[in-house]
Amino acid sequence: MIAKLKGLVDSVDTDSAVIDVGGVGYLVSASARTLRDLAVGGQATMLVETIVREDAISLYGFLDTAERDWFRILTTVQGVGARVALSILSTLSPDEIARAIAAQDKGTLSRPAGVGPKLAARLATELKDKAAAFGIAAAPVSESKTGVPVAAAGSINEDAISALVNLGYKRVEAFGAVARVTQRLGAEAKLDAVIRAGLQELAR
């Protein structure tokens, strides 16, 4: 199995690149985010996920471990093949994916091409335990009786998130800001203090 390629970037297409390693060109599919960082004629070191099927051996390349790890995780969800996983990674960074899942923000998760509302809901549900392991600065999350995720500090955090959403911020942004503020101020912080600090955090 090919796990890494190091060589010259021979060409870059809309959804793939050719990496020349010692005169052999490897066709590597990649996210738009990764392809933007490749320069034809330049050196590149790519982490590679090799997928073997009866009719083909396909290589998927990544410039950092977080993107590769999320590719592996995303493709464990029913309905997410390699192409859909790359579409998600082209639209959302690994950190944005983690935050969207932790916040159960199905709107953000449905933005990538190929991801409809049902698949977005499945991603949010099946991967919620994975989000915390990928650099998301969030307070522990539990589910309320309605199935809606609520930060450990309870209704104050949820009320603060709702207030920020009502002010025009996206839920995933509000969730991240409130999580960071709660870590800094502590679980005993008052609602108005959390909202003010959250606004300051979002204004940065």
Automatic annotation (TrEMBL):
<dbReference type="InterPro" id="IPR000085">
    <property type="entry name" value="RuvA"/>
</dbReference>
<keyword id="KW-0227">DNA damage</keyword>
<feature type="domain" description="DNA helicase Holliday junction RuvA type">
    <location>
        <begin position="1"/>
        <end position="61"/>
    </location>
</feature>
<feature type="region of interest" description="Domain III">
    <location>
        <begin position="153"/>
        <end position="204"/>
    </location>
</feature>
<dbReference type="InterPro" id="IPR011114">
    <property type="entry name" value="RuvA_C"/>
</dbReference>
<feature type="domain" description="Holliday junction DNA helicase RuvA C-terminal">
    <location>
        <begin position="157"/>
        <end position="202"/>
    </location>
</feature>
<comment type="similarity">
    <text>Belongs to the RuvA family.</text>
</comment>
<comment type="function">
    <text>The RuvA-RuvB-RuvC complex processes Holliday junction (HJ) DNA during genetic recombination and DNA repair, while the RuvA-RuvB complex plays an important role in the rescue of blocked DNA replication forks via replication fork reversal (RFR). RuvA specifically binds to HJ cruciform DNA, conferring on it an open structure. The RuvB hexamer acts as an ATP-dependent pump, pulling dsDNA into and through the RuvAB complex. HJ branch migration allows RuvC to scan DNA until it finds its consensus sequence, where it cleaves and resolves the cruciform DNA.</text>
</comment>
<keyword id="KW-0238">DNA-binding</keyword>
<keyword id="KW-0233">DNA recombination</keyword>
<dbReference type="InterPro" id="IPR036267">
    <property type="entry name" value="RuvA_C_sf"/>
</dbReference>
<dbReference type="InterPro" id="IPR010994">
    <property type="entry name" value="RuvA_2-like"/>
</dbReference>
<dbReference type="InterPro" id="IPR013849">
    <property type="entry name" value="DNA_helicase_Holl-junc_RuvA_I"/>
</dbReference>
<dbReference type="Pfam" id="PF01330">
    <property type="entry name" value="RuvA_N"/>
</dbReference>
<comment type="subunit">
    <text>Homotetramer. Forms an RuvA(8)-RuvB(12)-Holliday junction (HJ) complex. HJ DNA is sandwiched between 2 RuvA tetramers; dsDNA enters through RuvA and exits via RuvB. An RuvB hexamer assembles on each DNA strand where it exits the tetramer. Each RuvB hexamer is contacted by two RuvA subunits (via domain III) on 2 adjacent RuvB subunits; this complex drives branch migration. In the full resolvosome a probable DNA-RuvA(4)-RuvB(12)-RuvC(2) complex forms which resolves the HJ.</text>
</comment>
<dbReference type="InterPro" id="IPR012340">
    <property type="entry name" value="NA-bd_OB-fold"/>
</dbReference>
<dbReference type="Pfam" id="PF07499">
    <property type="entry name" value="RuvA_C"/>
</dbReference>
<keyword id="KW-0963">Cytoplasm</keyword>
<dbReference type="Pfam" id="PF14520">
    <property type="entry name" value="HHH_5"/>
</dbReference>
<keyword id="KW-0234">DNA repair</keyword>
<protein>
    <recommendedName>
        <fullName>Holliday junction branch migration complex subunit RuvA</fullName>
    </recommendedName>
</protein>
